[in-house]
Amino acid sequence: MELHLTLLFNGLATGMLIFLLAAGLSLIFGLMSVLNFAHGALFMFGAYAGTWMYLLFGGAAGDYSILAFGMGLIGAIVTGIVLGYTVERTTVRQVYGNHLRQILITTGVMLVVGELVMLIWGSNLISVQPPPAISGFTELMNVRFHHYRIFIIGFGLLVLISLLLMLKKSKIGLVVRAGVENKEMVQALGINVRKIFTFVFVFGTTLACVGGFLWGPFQGQINRIWG
After folding, report:
1. Residue 75 to residue 46: CA distance in whole angstroms
2. CA distance 209 to 216
3. Residue in 50, 219, 225, 56 with CA at minimum distance from that of residue 124
């Protein structure tokens, strides 16, 4: 029983991290029909950028405060916004509707982003731990529930609920879905569909970068192979 509960709990935490990566990819492909082969590289870049901010604000000195962790999370979000906007405007926008060109150009972006990580942070392992406020564990029924993994599960559920509300209940969600169904009609109503698609791409990239940052403390380290 204890083993099953442990596996279920750990699987949920890992699944939520993968969800943050996959949700962004699903948004970009499902709503924009864009095959983004660079998504994993953006996940990796977010891991490095967020961790760098986290360590810069205290982690490097062993002060893994919740404030430093929050700054790392903000760093990952800002990185996702900047990267997503730059990639969409300079590359992806030029190949909407052409899957072959999307594969080729996003593969190129993946290679460039990977080399940027090497150039900025090198290829050595970077150790990182969660802040004490969400470290440790609670033992229940002989099962250890690690607080950071509980945090990840809660964060993932919050993102899931927010996504559903945005797509199903908000005006921008309505415009996004309408733009996917009939782009010409939406444009005829005076709505800039390109801006909506840019928003979706940036949002998906930001989710990947945040997932990359959260993965670091979960694993205890990051490296160039996986982010």
Report:
1. 8
2. 11
3. 225
CB 95 within 8 A of CB 102: yes
Nearest in space to 159 (alpha carbons), one of 126, 207, 115, 192 = 207
Digit-by-digit pLDDT tens for the chain (227 residues) are 666 677 777 788 888 888 888 888 888 887 778 888 999 999 999 999 999 999 888 765 566 788 889 999 999 999 999 999 999 999 998 888 788 999 999 999 999 998 999 888 887 888 888 888 888 777 777 767 788 889 999 999 999 999 888 888 887 777 777 776 777 777 777 777 778 888 889 999 999 999 999 998 888 888 765 44
pTM for the whole structure:
0.88
Domain count, the chain: 1
Asked whether residue 4 is assigned to any structural domain, the reply reads no
3-class SS of residue 144: strand
User: What is the C-alpha separation between 109 and 73, in angstroms, rounded?
Assistant: 24
Angle between helices 2-32 and 147-169 (to 10 degrees): 30
Domain that holds residue 40: 18-222
Would you give the distance in Å from CA 156 to the centre of its chain?
11
31, amino acid identity: L
Task: Determine, yes or no, domain membership for 72.
Answer: yes
